[in-house]
Amino acid sequence: MAIAFPDLPYAHDALSPAISADTLQTHHGKHHKAYVDKTNAAVEGTDLADASLEAIIAAADEKGDKGLFNNSAQSWNHAFYWHSMAPEGGAPSGDLKAAIDAAFGSVDALVEKLQTAGAGHFASGWVWLAADADGKLSVEETHDAGTLAIGGKNPLLTLDVWEHAYYLDHKNVRPDYLKAVSTGHLNWDFAAENYARGSIWSYPSD
C-alpha cells in the first residue's frame, strides 16, 4: 500500500492573488509529489511498506533516518498545509474562538503573532497554531522538515515558510505572503475540526 498523493482541496487559482495558480501547480504538483514518491520508494519492500504516513515519520525519527524523515514529514506537512488554507477563510467561532481569546487576546493578535513568527523564522520551515493536551493554544515553529505530526502538540493550522511557497508571487518579501494568506485564507473550519477532535490529523489514505 503506497502513501497517497492527495489532490488539492480547491482549484489551483482559488487562493490567487495571495498564492498564484503557477505557485500551487509547482508546489503541489512538483515539490509535494516528489516527497511522496521518495517516501514510497524508500519504504517499498520494508516493514514500513503498509504503514501509515504518521507511523513512517515516527519510525524514521526513532531510527535517525534523516532521508526518510525529511521526505515523509514533508509529505505530511504539505497535505496539512493545503487544508490549512481555503478560498474564503471565514472566522473562528465557538470553542476555538474562546481558546484563541484566552491564549492571545483576540483573533487579530493571533494572526499578528503568526505573521511575526513566520517573518522572523530563519531559513526554511513551518509556523503552526497548535494545542496542548489541555486545549491551550500556542504558536510553534519547526525548522526544515520538522513536523507536529509526531510529538505532544495537536496542530490546528500551519504556514509554509520555505521560499518555494511564495517566491514566484512575492519574491523575497515573505511578510507580504504571510499577510496575504493569514488575513484572508486561513481555514478556520479545518482548525476548529482539529481542535474539537483533540488528536493529530491523519494523512489521507486515498
UniProtKB/TrEMBL annotation:
InterPro entries: Mn/Fe_SOD, Mn/Fe_SOD_BS, Mn/Fe_SOD_C, Mn/Fe_SOD_N, Mn/Fe_SOD_N_sf, SOD_C_sf
Origin: domain of life: Bacteria
One Pfam family linked to the record: Sod_Fe_C
Enzymatic class: oxidoreductase
Catalytic activity: 2 superoxide + 2 H(+) = H2O2 + O2
Keywords linked to the UniProt accession: Metal-binding, Oxidoreductase
E.C. code: 1.15.1.1
Function: Destroys radicals which are normally produced within the cells and which are toxic to biological systems.
UniProt xrefs under PANTHER family: SUPEROXIDE DISMUTASE, SUPEROXIDE DISMUTASE [FE] 2, CHLOROPLASTIC
Name of this protein: Superoxide dismutase
Organism: Croceicoccus naphthovorans
